[in-house]
Amino acid sequence: MLTITSASKLFNPGTVDEKVALMDVGLHLDRGDFVTVIGSNGAGKSTLMNLISGVMKPDLGSVSIGGTDITVRTEAQRSRWIGRVFQDPMAGTAPNMTIEENLAMAYNRGRKRGLSWAVTGRRRAVFREQLGKLGIGLENRLTAKVGLLSGGERQALSLLMATFTEPDILLLDEHTAALDPARAELITRLTETLVREMNLTTLMVTHNMEQAIRLGNRLIMMDKGRIILDIPAGRKDGLTVQRLLGEFEQISGQKLADDRLVLG
Ligand SMILES: Nc1ncnc2c1ncn2[C@@H]1O[C@H](COP(=O)(O)OP(=O)(O)OP(=O)(O)O)[C@@H](O)[C@H]1O
């Protein structure tokens, strides 16, 4: 479903600020794979997500979805295939628009320009049904401005909007990190349900190692722009944070110096 081939990305090349964000990264996800991504600060996780979503292009290498090379396509052109939820609950939704207007926008994502964002009676029924799945009462607040929702409610809506059109790839960029533990757990459960029901091919960046172990069928660890560990479904069972830290030390020859990652 998703194939990244030999992707490299360098920032500020040839200057004192040169940073290797990705170095010769190869990754293939089959349809329905749910891959969690961990790694220390600056490991290249966000850059990887940005290359897939089209926010930036690799200096070398390629990205393809479903066999189509999308390396040079813009972010807007890719939006029909890709749904993304960011860490910041404010990022995925338009605060001055109502819940139903936001959903109409998500519904039209990647479709022909000029289509109306009008909320028809039929669409409203679909929106109500979809929102009902979240189980937090948003289906009764269709005309509420999104700016009035709590962070957790907004993130639940962002998640629904990102998955609404059953994208080929779902990118979750530390999407529970800014929430309190109870809301984070709610969003995690919703994520699991939506991914499972739609069999979505998913890449989820998280700083929470427990979460990375518990969720999904595969785990990758990044360090200094490379994928240094790729743990497939069978080997994930029985994995512990301690063992993961041990593997990191063994491969990189150093202790993991990122408290946020170690402590979760
Ligand atoms: N726009 C940019 N300009 C210059 N350097 C950048 C830019 N974006 C990222 N970098 C650098 O590239 C490297 C990888 O950054 P990236 O944000 O992908 O890491 P990350 O794994 O997401 O880190 P974190 O967990 O801290 O968010 C880092 O050294 C970072 O400083």
Looking at this protein, list some descriptive labels.
4-stranded antiparallel beta sheet, membrane, alpha/beta, 6-stranded mixed beta sheet, ATP binding, binds adenosine-5'-triphosphate, 264 residues, Rossmann fold, ATP-binding, 10 strands
Quick structural overview:
This protein has 264 residues and is of the alpha/beta class.
Total helical segments: 10
Helical amount among residues, as a percent range?
A: 25-40%
Class by alpha and beta content: alpha/beta
**H-E string:** EEEHEEHEHHHEHEHEEHHH
Shape type: globular
Protein model, in words:
The chain has 264 residues and is α/β, with parallel strands linked by helices. The chain has one domain: 3-Layer(aba) Sandwich (Rossmann fold), CATH 3.40.50. Helix content is 36%, strand content 23%. It contains 10 helices and 10 strands. The chain has helices spanning 45-53, 75-78, 99-107, 121-134, 151-163, 181-198, 209-214, 233-236, 241-252, 259-263; strands spanning 2-11, 19-29, 34-39, 60-65, 68-69, 82-85, 169-173, 201-205, 218-223, 226-231. The strands form 2 sheets. It has a 6-stranded mixed beta sheet, sandwiched between helices. α6 links the parallel β7 (169-173) and β8. α5 runs parallel beside α6. The chain binds adenosine-5'-triphosphate. It comes from Paenibacillus albicereus. One of its GO terms (cellular component) is plasma membrane. This is ATP-binding cassette domain-containing protein. Residues 2-249 form the ABC transporter domain.
